[in-house]
Write a sequence for this structure.
């Protein structure tokens, strides 16, 4: 197993020295206003900045309007068109577990089916055997501040933390390749190539059976931000693929970093939990991964 290369982008933003600051794949749905909003999350600078087209004969300044961003290369400059050093935020996307092992949630699965019966394209026939319950916020982590008397529980196993997705979309969702924007009528935004079938579509969230079972907007918004951090910021973060099952742990270039060790620990924990039995614990010993099984 080795990290996947950066997914192809057709919109790239660089600084004056051609350092890549951001990028994404444009399906014809992302406007300049949306892109400016994303960049405000990613740029760590107090200086005013502008965006100018770099691959056109007459560079033109872009503004945060509803105009759709055209594929191409752009340069981020100071407000007076002089070179500007832009520092990116140090925040990384929150690590998600792979979707190889699933939480056993038969009761919630049936509830999810009831919730989604009216949430599909008109005239479409739902085939439940092709769908999987996907967490919005990883079941391995907690999300404080989302529980109140009106909205109910925000625990990972809550029905309001789940969506039904096809297996291929479940994997892409877990890797933040696309998100649902609750602030734009629940529009699906894909950050990388390969999602032409869903990019720009709208999830009919309000047609779900009961408002009390709908996913939390705060969770969808948080997941969306993780996608911006992982796939839009800089050159994009590496993608860890644990699906092949072939992992050469002797490759220090891949597994020698703290990030790699942390991800491996989480994957071990996910699989041990799914195996059943007593409680399992993962701990570190002198920088290596050690597994304790408590029966």
């Amino acid at each position: 197993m080795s990290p996947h290369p950066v997914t192809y982008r057709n919109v790239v933003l660089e600084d004056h020295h051609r350092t890549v600051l951001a990028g994404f794949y444009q399906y014809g749905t992302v406007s300049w206003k949306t892109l400016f909003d994303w960049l405000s999350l990613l740029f760590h600078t107090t200086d005013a900045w502008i965006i100018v087209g770099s691959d056109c004969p007459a560079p033109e300044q872009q503004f945060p309007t509803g105009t759709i961003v055209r594929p191409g290369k752009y340069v981020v400059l100071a407000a007076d068109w002089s070179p500007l050093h832009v520092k990116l935020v140090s925040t990384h996307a929150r690590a998600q577990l792979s979707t190889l092992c699933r939480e056993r949630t038969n009761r919630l699965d049936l509830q999810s089916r009831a919730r989604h019966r009216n949430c599909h394209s008109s005239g479409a026939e739902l085939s439940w055997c092709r769908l999987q319950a996907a967490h919005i916020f990883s079941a391995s982590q907690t999300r404080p501040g989302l529980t109140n008397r009106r909205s109910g529980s925000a625990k990972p196993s809550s029905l309001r933390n789940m969506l039904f997705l096809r297996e291929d979309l479940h994997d892409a969702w877990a890797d933040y390749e696309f998100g649902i924007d609750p602030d734009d009528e629940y529009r699906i935004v894909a950050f990388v190539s390969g999602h032409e079938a869903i990019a720009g579509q709208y999830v009919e969230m309000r047609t779900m059976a009961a408002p009390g079972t709908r996913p939390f907007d705060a969770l969808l918004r948080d997941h969306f931000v993780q996608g911006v951090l992982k796939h839009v910021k800089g050159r994009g973060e590496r993608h860890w693929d644990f699906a092949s099952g072939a992992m050469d742990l002797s490759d220090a270039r891949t597994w020698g970093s703290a990030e790699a060790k942390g991800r491996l620990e989480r994957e071990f924990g996910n699989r041990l939990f799914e195996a059943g039995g007593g409680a399992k614990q993962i701990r570190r010993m002198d920088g290596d991964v050690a597994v304790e099984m408590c029966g």
